[in-house]
Write a structure and sequence with these properties.
This protein has 5 helices and no strands. The chain is mainly alpha-helical and 118 residues long. The chain has one domain. The longest helix has 20 residues. The N and C termini lie far apart (34 Å). One of its GO terms (molecular function) is lyase activity.
Amino acid sequence: MNPNLHCSQVVRSPGSGIGKQTGELDMTIIAKMVNSLQNMKILKPLEQKQETKDVFLARANKQMEWFEVNQLALDEKASPNDHGSFYHNQLIPLLAFARNFEHAKMHLEEFYNGICLG
């Protein structure tokens, strides 16, 4: 699975192959995955291999980069509705998982001082 959403809600037409910005909503499960991984870190239900953690962190870093530079993602961020909310809902847990707390805090403040106010 690619760490970007270029093909989410893809527009099926000759020569296109690029998704629509609204496809960002398709991956809201990412926040739940990050929360589950954080819980597993605390509860330690199974042996966790460092390799698995490293792979997920590498993927998270690629997806964070995509969220912050790709025009589809930035268009979603600018949406004044649930699309804009889910942008932050996905990016902030990834930032926290990567222990990039200052950047996560910046996005939380942006969310609470922006789209959250309506």
